[in-house]
Fold this protein.
Amino acid sequence: MKPNLDRVFSALADPTRRRIVARLARGEATVMELAAPFKMTQPSVSKHIKVLERAGLVSRSRQAQTRPCRLEPAALRAAMEWTGSYRTLWEDSFDRLGDFLDANSQTKKKDGGNDR
Amino acid sequence: MTGSKDFRVFEVTRQLRHPRGTVWKAWSQRDQIEKWWGPKGCAVRALRFEFRPGGFFHYSMDAAVAPTMWGRFNFLEISAPDRIVWLNSFANRDCGMARAPFSDKCPLEILNIVTFSETAEGTTQALRAEPFGATEEEMQFFEDLCSSGSLAQGFGGTFDQLSAHLNGA
């Protein structure tokens, strides 16, 4: 499933949900385990987890009774790709432009041409 | 640094070891620009390329894990061989202007000016970009986007941990 970036970003806009995500980055956890450090009730943690699930950030096991939560890396990767700065966008593009021009002039030299 | 006027205009300069005419071709030819322009990890494909004032470069961006996105350059001024001016924005699949997929606070259009000057070693390429017709809120967003930490900073240290997790995953 391709992640919906709007949902990913709005899910991550909430500090509690970011802390849940950070906790899950260390490994799977049940709702009870996730609720403990937040001094929150299980139903309110469950609500946050539902938002994270809908964003594709978290999935829940269907196997165990406790249905542990785990992180889904794909949605996070997509989000992180889009948090690069405008500078990164251009620096990366200029890097590729330089490589492209280098490769192009190599080819031309091989063909006996000259790009100057 | 936040609140500094400096971030409202974004500038980046690059020295290229190639003659200006070669650099110009890399910007002005469809099969060349799609090979280097775009966000890292995205395959960019030109859907429309009209290199003239008023023309559009409409492109799709495909990353492995994200849905297809589109963007466009609307060329305003083309002065071979040393200057190109265009408005850059996200787009829909039909080349209509669109909001950024990651935020509705991102300025709709960015005005870009690139200039090429000849040097002994090749070409100096200088890009200057600033939001075009942006609201104060959008200007603020652009500032954040241009400051070094970018959006990731807004998410605190979480993203560092996530990077570590993803690299290990």
